[in-house]
Every structure is written in C-alpha cells, then in structure tokens.
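During the no-cost extension, the postdoctoral fellow (Dr. R.K.) reprocessed legacy sequence entries with the updated structure-token encoder. One reprocessed record is reproduced below for audit purposes.
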Amino acid sequence: MSMKTHLWIICAALLTFNPLMEAAYKMGINQPLPAKGKHASSTGKSGKSTGPAAGREAFDDEQPVLQNLSEKFDISVERLRYLRGIHNGYEEIVPALIVAREAKVEVGRILKDRMNGKAWKFIAHLYLVDLKPLNEEVIDLLKPIRKRVSKEAMAERPTARQSSK
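Re-encoded structure tokens follow.
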C-alpha cells in the first residue's frame, strides 16, 4: 500500500474511535433553551425559538458559569453568550476553549470544525493538542458546571446549516 493509503486508514481509524469519556457529546441533541422574562421569543410548531430574544435573558441563570469561563480562558462573557445563543452546550464550548487556548486559535474555528462533523479526537490531532490532558481538563471543568446548569445546556449542539445551492 502507498503512504497515502496508510494515512487514510489511520485517519479513518481515528475518526471512528473517540475516547473522550466524560463529555458525552451527543450528536442528535438540538433543543434550544427557553427564553425567560419579558423578552422571551415565541416558539413555532417545532418548539424551536423563532425570535432573537433567546440571547441575554435565557442565560441569566448561567451567569456564574459564563463569568468563570470568561476569567479562566480570557474570553468575554458576551462572546460566551453568543456561543450559547447559537446552541453550543458546555460539552462543546469547554473542550473548544481548551483546544483553542492550546493551539492559539479562535474558539469559533474549533466549534466550526465540530459543526462540520469532526470528532474531538480528530480536532485535537489536527491542532496538535495532546488528548489525555485535554480529556482530564474537560472532565475537571465540566464537573461543577453539571451541578449548575440543565442537561440541555450541557449537551446542546447546533445543527449544520444546509447550503441553499
């Protein structure tokens, strides 16, 4: 076999086995958090939010978590609110923040890779981040967050946009 074939086999093996234990990244979950207060947006037949109000007020209960992550990763609370507002759960945001910090890239770049279906193991390899310390840090950071936020806030994941072409 050629070297190129070997690389494809290795990449395929990496994509099919993902040992991230604690962060149970659920691919099919796409449930928006309900907005609260006078700015709550309406929901359509699908139960999904139809208005722009799902931003600030929906995450007031998550403020301590957002503030903690903001301080730890030197990212604005507004940016974290934006990431939550586009339906990224903490099981997506926390590993993305760690990989972005280690690889010195924008967190949105990592989350875009996730939206495009890449596994965390592949992303870690792509950005030259060692998986074992990544897993340990993710587990440590998610433990206290799980106690403060809902399961939906933990596991929420955006769906990839369909191309209009």
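Helices lie at 3-16, 63-73, 77-85, 90-103, 107-115, 120-126, 131-148, 151-155. Confidence is low (pLDDT under 50) at residues 12-56. The remaining legacy entries will be reprocessed before the final report is submitted.
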